[in-house]
């Protein structure tokens, strides 16, 4: 059972989110908050698997709550609810260690799929958000892309050859099971490799690792829509 604390300052939206989540027999909403401070307190009380946070809330917003939850309760993953008009927040939340980004106006199935992916230790970007992030990365000037690419390649040089193989497949959005099948190894070994990759690259989660793989040229396309 995936235990979730959800936070949004709009009562109707919280009710809608609760209805979507509780329709899945594998998800339980253990707490609801109207702002980030209340969400932080509920996470401390219930120790959920996931905190689902609106990016903008009065008082303590989603970004501040994300930082506090990850620092104080690292076993709780954070998934951010956002809109098309909040692209700048995506990059900030990504750097802050959020594991998922879901559009409020997206398909409810994306939200459920995202929570399941994150609960398995993976990461998730709604397809629309992934495309926007790819476009943002692609919009960087040639000099900027070369600089970022060189920096990413330098960091990836820290990895073993097998770890680079795994990272490339993480960048394609494959789950641990899919990576294991592709490389002919067991999922437990993939999990060990992924943990080592995150440590060696000094990144917090698979989304950050996937973006780094994209910038280094390990994968074509862009960051994953889902990575379990």
Automatic annotation (TrEMBL):
4-aspartylphosphate PTM positions: 54
Domain (Response regulatory) ranges: 3-119
Ranges of residues in domain HTH luxR-type: 152-217
Record-linked InterPro entries: CheY-like_superfamily (IPR011006), NreC/VraR/RcsB-like_REC (IPR058245), Sig_transdc_resp-reg_C-effctor (IPR016032), Sig_transdc_resp-reg_receiver (IPR001789), Tscrpt_reg_LuxR_C (IPR000792), WalR-like (IPR039420)
Pfam families xref list: GerE, Response_reg
Highest taxon of source: Bacteria
Keyword entries, A-Z: DNA-binding, Phosphoprotein, Transcription, Transcription regulation
Annotated protein name in UniProt: Response regulator
Species of the source: Streptomonospora arabica
């Amino acid at each position: 059972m995936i235990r979730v604390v959800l936070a949004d300052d709009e009562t109707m939206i919280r009710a809608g989110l609760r209805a979507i989540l509780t329709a899945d027999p594998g998800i339980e909403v253990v707490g609801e908050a109207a702002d980030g401070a209340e969400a932080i307190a509920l996470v401390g009380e219930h120790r959920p698997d996931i905190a689902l946070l609106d990016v903008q809330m009065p008082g303590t917003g989603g970004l501040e709550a994300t930082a506090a939850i990850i620092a104080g309760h690292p076993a709780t993953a954070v998934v951010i609810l956002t809109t098309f008009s909040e692209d700048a927040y995506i990059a900030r939340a990504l750097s802050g260690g959020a594991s998922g980004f879901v559009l409020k106006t997206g398909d409810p199935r994306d939200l459920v799929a995202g929570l399941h992916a994150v609960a398995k230790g993976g990461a998730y970007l709604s397809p629309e958000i992934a495309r926007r992030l790819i476009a943002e990365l692609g919009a960087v000037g040639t000099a900027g892309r070369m600089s970022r690419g060189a920096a990413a390649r330098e960091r990836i040089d820290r990895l073993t050859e097998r770890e680079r193989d795994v990272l490339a497949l993480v960048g394609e959005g494959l789950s641990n099971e899919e990576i294991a099948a592709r490389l002919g190894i067991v999922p437990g070994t993939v999990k060990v490799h992924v943990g080592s990759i995150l440590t060696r690259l000094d990144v917090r989660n698979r989304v950050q690792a996937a973006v780094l793989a994209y910038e280094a040229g390990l994968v074509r396309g862009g960051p994953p829509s889902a990575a379990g």
